[in-house]
Design a protein that fits this description.
Chains A, D: One of its GO terms (molecular function) is ATP hydrolysis activity. The complex is a heterotetramer, with two copies of chain A (285 residues), one copy of chain B (250 residues) and one copy of chain C (207 residues). Chain A is of the alpha/beta class and 285 residues long. Chain A is built from eleven helices and ten strands. In chain A, helix 3 packs across helix 4, helix 3 runs parallel beside helix 5 and helix 4 crosses helix 5. Chain A is globular, with a radius of gyration of 20 Å. Chain B folds into two domains: 153 residues, no CATH class; 65 residues, no CATH class. The chains are: A alpha/beta (285), B mainly alpha (250), C mainly alpha (207).
């Protein structure tokens, strides 16, 4: 196991109105992988994300970036945020400028880049999310799915090593989800580490390399997607459920219809259908 | 979101009529205004603190947190009263015994008055006090606007905090100039979203038969006459004791 | 800078409350008329009021590194007019006292006069005057917000001076004392508030 | 087929910024059933819902309630909204009062009920959604799922014959979805007609009696859930996809593993697993 790029150790945090949000949380983020933070509403996902980029400061515990304990003075936070980008759930919360290109340039300019450099970064970020054609459009006239992508572009333009996304697929229709995941995969291929929160177990199972299951402000289990989702009792106690594809694949194995190894269960509808087809071809031959 | 509001909704007196607490806090402020400060203020401070902590069950720590910011103001403001400024002979600052007396008086009165405010604010949801304004003849349109403001504050506050987090994530507060620009953008965006929210709320409420008035059931808290009487007696006793002490101290 | 609970002598507290009442009555009448003509105005005004509260809770960066809060007085007066702002301002001040322990109940009247009456009227007057003299929108907004802000603090200084005349040099001395302190801290903040309001209005007109 | 309780005929509507939202839309809502309006983002779902309760007035076409063409004067709208309740997607757009009980009382009081009657309605509505314990709680301190249920209670308290819900499960975790659907089923059992919009094909397939597929401001197809979802090309062109359970059940039938009739395909994970189990029991016997 390689050294984690981000490491949260024993985080505790309570909001000003005394709601305890994190209660001794430990998490490791492996470089270059996709980590899903899977948890029900109120399990502390968003609070954790705000700790991972230094927005919130834990009452106890610490966050390490590349092994270094992070500080909370201005300079440390600035450096931290250049390495770790955070995309919030609601794009309305993070689009402030009149046009798409202006908005995406916000981060690079704040990093102190020249106008020319910022322009390059904007073009690059928009292209990587396949929304270069939106550059001159007014932000308020975008569709919800477009706003989401522009918000992500605003972070990408800062070239962070880790991109953290809060519920990236929330509110998107199937087409929008597919489009977004394609763009994120492209991003990972270029070496970026991805962390995203979700309460969608099917999405986490289909799409994450690693999963951390959150409940009541703690990480209840962390492992590869398959390891983390194996225990249906744990999922139930975290107000979650077993992913549909995993449940059906298990039922089909139990009934003797299908064979697959625990190390490589089918994870998407496509994979499961393929498995069924192959088996019937075998049976016929 | 606000610690004060959280206590107001969840304290031992939650189900009692807000008029009772209004009488206690308001009566406290009144006798503090009418009677000699040096003897009245300490008694009021004592009574209100005991009522808030032992009566309503507000933790001492949270009461102190309530007092912290205004007390900070007091500590910076009061010393100014103890200093006199002589303009005749250039500008000369000097310690003034008379000013010091005023400063002490203001400090005592402020602390006592603050304890009254704390009792009321920490034990009574703002909306229940606003509802009482209707009885005082405040037009219902104003009262309805106040109640809506209360509700919307929490909504907009969350958007403001989230918006600032989003800007900070993109280094929006890295220098003074950028901070100002970010804040301006945040305020402009929040204002537009506030106005959008008003329009959406209009649609949402129209679906529920909204025709202009925002009439809702008022919570039923029975006014307890015995308790009102006890509060009256308590305030009377404080007044008498304060006057007696004042005469005794000369 | 709100005057805290209990800080003013009772007579002064009562007198400032009496001064505030007529402005509130006039403003309330205006609000009642507006809402009668157009019931949905309730939602709009409430949104504006809640927005003003939130604005006052935001921290603005200041040159010295310390933080202050935008008053939004100028912005509100320009957008909604000063008489409505008296009511919205008063509501915001009441909520600040009860939810944040900023200001107080006995000093509510004095704070209303400074922040919800004098500030907005000065801002509004400066805005109209500058515009009628042919000043650019940006200039008018800047001056309105800055001077509205300063007028608020000047009024607060006057209130404190009247309540606590200097033992040696009287009310004038006290005004110099309080005003001097405020001038040091508030002039830069008023300028910042002016700049901020210009940014906001520019963005609003841009959309 | 019984007479429709709501009928939209040839609705056309354009927003002030000239975006055409409805382009000759026809829809029928059968009494006592659950109808899902299934469509991608921007397909016109919300606009349609706002027409069904008289909030928006079509440029062309009309809406009939119990066979009557509806008017748009004040009295007609009030009567209409007493029969047809609309729950918006974001509960924050519908909750305005400080406490739950107060908020729920708003609709009944607008209907001209006495305080005592309104109080009964409030208790009833809260009980039917199993949130009676929230009555005295401040609205702003509720969780997202609780707010959703309170917003629904605010509509139920008006005792409408039809309840329309815009994306009722959006933003809810699996536990919250199950809870909400349970409450809605209970509502339907008491005779209420339910219409809900969604872009979640799995939800629509599992849970709706009837489905209308929306695309570009029109109803592309309306029928029973099974009929409406049969055509995968149509779904694709509407930016949707075939529901996972249906896709897998079809694959298993094609491979000869399962048998089921087109009239009664398995619609939930539970039903499909059950079918697989039964078959393996049969096979063993």
């Amino acid at each position: 196991m390689s050294d984690p790029i981000l490491l949260a150790e024993g985080l505790e945090y309570a909001y000003p109105d005394a709601v305890m949000a994190l209660q001794g949380l430990n998490l490791r983020v492996q470089p270059g992988r996709r980590l899903a933070l899977l948890g029900a509403n109120g399990s502390g996902k968003t609070t954790l994300l705000l700790h991972l980029n230094g927005t919130l400061r834990p009452a106890r515990g610490q966050v390490r970036l590349d092994g270094q304990i992070l500080g909370y003075d201005r300079a440390a936070r600035l450096a931290w945020r250049s390495r770790v980008g955070l995309v919030l759930q609601d794009p309305e919360d993070q689009l402030f400028s009149a046009t798409v290109a202006q908005d995406v340039s916000f981060g690079p300019l704040n990093q102190g880049l020249s106008d020319a450099e910022a322009r390059t970064r904007v073009d690059e970020a928009l292209a990587s999310l396949r929304i270069a054609h939106l550059a001159g459009r007014p932000t308020h006239a975008l569709s919800f799915g477009q706003k989401k992508r522009v918000a992500i572009a605003g972070i990408l333009a800062m070239r962070p090593a880790v991109v953290i996304l809060d519920e990236p697929t929330a509110g998107l229709d199937p087409h929008g989800v597919a489009h977004l995941l394609g763009a994120l995969r492209h991003l990972q291929d270029s070496g970026t580490t991805l962390v995203f929160s979700t309460h969608d177990v099917d999405l986490a199972y289909a799409w994450a390399d690693d999963i951390a299951i959150l409940g009541a402000g703690r990480v209840l289990r962390q492992g590869t997607a398959v390891e983390a989702l194996a225990d249906s009792n744990l999922l139930g106690s975290a107000h979650l459920r077993t992913p549909t594809i995993l449940a059906l694949a298990t039922a089909l194995r139990d009934s003797g219809d299908l064979e697959w190894s625990d190390a490589q269960p089918p994870r998407t509808q496509g994979e499961l259908v393929e498995l069924i087809r192959q088996r019937s071809v075998h049976a016929r031959n | 979101m606000f610690a004060i509001d959280r206590h107001a909704w969840a304290n031992r007196w939650r189900d009692r009529h807000p008029g009772e607490r209004l009488l206690l806090a308001g009566g406290g402020l009144l006798i503090l205004s009418l009677l000699p400060v040096f003897t009245t203020a300490p008694l009021i401070l004592l009574v209100m603190t005991i009522a808030t902590v032992a009566g309503a069950g507000i933790p001492v720590r949270d009461l102190l947190a309530f007092m912290a910011i205004p007390v900070g103001f007091l500590l910076t403001g009061a010393p100014f009263l103890a200093v006199s400024l002589d303009l005749n002979d250039g500008i000369r600052l000097a310690f003034s015994p008379a000013g010091a007396m005023t400063a002490l008086e203001v400090t005592l009165r402020s602390l006592a008055a603050l304890s009254c405010l704390a009792l009321l604010a920490l034990t009574t949801p703002v909306v229940e006090l606003v509802a009482l304004l209707r009885r005082l003849g405040v037009p219902s349109a104003i009262v309805e606007i106040m109640l809506l403001i209360y509700r919307l504050i929490f909504l907009f506050m969350e958007q403001a905090i989230t918006g600032q987090h989003a800007q900070a994530a993109r280094q929006g507060y890295s220098t003074f100039g950028r901070s100002l620009r970010s804040l301006g953008q945040l305020v402009a965006t929040l204002l537009q979203r506030a106005l959008q929210r008003a329009r959406r709320l209009e649609t949402g409420l129209a679906a529920r038969g909204f025709e202009g008035e925002l009439r809702v059931l008022s919570p039923v808290h029975a006014l307890s006459w015995p308790r009102l009487l006890r509060i009256g007696v308590l305030l009377g006793a404080v007044s008498l004791l304060a006057l007696r002490l004042d005469r005794w101290l000369g | 800078m709100h005057i805290m609970e209990g800080f003013l002598p009772p007579i002064h507290a009562a007198a400032w409350t009496a001064v505030a009442v007529p402005f509130l009555v006039v403003g309330a009448r205006r609000v009642v008329t507006l809402t009668r003509e157009q019931p949905q105005t309730r939602l709009l005004l409430a949104s504006a009021g809640a927005f003003a509260f939130v604005l006052s809770a935001l921290k603005i960066p200041s040159v010295t590194g310390s933080c202050s809060h935008p008053t939004g007085t100028g912005l509100g007066a320009i957008l909604f007019g000063p008489s409505v702002m008296a009511v919205l301002g008063a509501i915001v001040l009441l909520f600040q006292a009860l939810l944040l322990a900023h200001g107080g109940l006995t000093t509510l009247g004095a704070n209303i006069v400074a922040m919800a009456v004098v500030g907005p009227w000065v801002a509004y007057g400066v805005f109209r005057l500058t515009r009628s003299l042919g000043g650019a929108l940006t200039i008018a907004v800047f001056l309105a917000a800055m001077l509205g802000d300063l007028a608020t603090y000047l009024m607060t200084s006057i209130q404190l001076a009247l309540a606590f005349p200097d033992p040696t040099s009287g009310i004038l001395g006290a005004l110099t004392k309080f005003g001097g302190v405020f001038a040091l801290t508030q002039i830069p903040l008023a300028v910042i508030e002016g700049l901020l309001t210009v940014i906001v209005v520019n963005l609003l007109t841009q959309y």
